[in-house]
Design a protein that fits this description.
alpha/beta, six-stranded mixed sheet, Rossmann fold, 153 residues, 6 strands, 34% helix
């Protein structure tokens, strides 16, 4: 297992699934873990495992700004919040499409935009992003994209 001692990790969508498992793994690896989720009930199941929990709607840019200004500066950002529509593009509505783009794209953009200035001050920073992508027959399909950014200063 990787050693994350001395690193601070900010994670979204940690109430269940991949986000929850990642929060537990980062904590076990020694990171100071700041877990967020829109659902307080599932989020608070991590209270005894991670260092901080915060209810966060990642589609609310002002809530993201408020959170980032109130927490320990992260070395790691794991964007896990996202949605995969159940069904084909022919079965989706404009509302489904808009929600998917707002959560999967715009929210991720806002998280990264708020964290990048902090990470630019660090020697090494890590961005992990789950990116739902379009598929010819489905509205979205999950593929994992990991971006490791080593900053030269």
């Amino acid at each position: 297992m990787i050693d994350l001692k001395g690193k601070t990790a900010l994670l979204t969508a940690t109430g269940q699934g991949i986000g929850n498992a990642t929060a537990k793994a980062f904590s076990k690896a020694g990171a100071y873990v700041i877990a967020t989720d829109i659902n307080p009930e599932t989020l608070y199941s991590l209270n005894d495992i991670v260092d901080e929990t915060h209810v966060l709607d990642v589609t609310d840019h002002n809530a993201i700004k408020s959170l980032v200004s109130s927490i320990k500066e992260p070395d790691i950002l794991f964007n896990c919040a996202g949605v995969v529509h159940n069904g084909t593009i022919l079965e989706s509505s404009d509302d489904d499409w808009d929600f998917a783009f707002n959560l999967n794209g715009k929210a991720m953009y806002h998280m990264i935009k708020e964290i990048i200035p902090i990470m630019l001050k660090k020697v090494v920073a890590l961005l992990l992003t789950l990116l739902p992508l379009l598929h010819p027959l489905k509205v979205c399909q999950i593929d994992l994209y990991i971006v490791l950014q080593k900053l030269p200063f």
